Amino acid sequence: MKNGIWLYGLSGSGKTYASRYISTLMSNAFLIDGDTVRELISQDLSYDESSRAIQRQRILGLAKIAIRNGCKPIISTVTMSDKIFIECKELCIDVLRIERTTSQLVNVRNFYTDGTSNVVGIDIPDKRFDTVVVQNDGDEKFLERIKSIVK
User: Fold this and answer.
1) Could you say which DSSP state residue 92 is in?
2) Across residues 5-25, what is the average pLDDT?
3) Domains in the chain, start-ordered, CATH in brackets?
């Protein structure tokens, strides 16, 4: 890992779980979870595509502050964009996509089936980037995969 790591993937894929684990493997870790940022900073935003773009930009700003202060941000968000992906590369922040099967996602997040709107992967396109993909099968091998990539 270079200056930090950005995990992205559908809700329920295991990003927060992985980021918490990664923080135990390194010193100077600074967790930036998209859900926490939304709760504490981005209450003014909804979940549509334009709000998600603003949210990603705010999260990137927090990551830059962490790096300037000698910390390594470990970021988790549902979405990624071309602009943020390029900026991560420029900042030497590794980007990983966390994936989980649809059947497992439905078991952990009911909004995939209850008609909720602005769901990434249903209403909002789930954009993929040329980056490392880590499969989460819901077993302990997931953390082993994460550790092998981060080390």
Assistant:
1) T
2) 95
3) 4-150 (3.40.50.300)
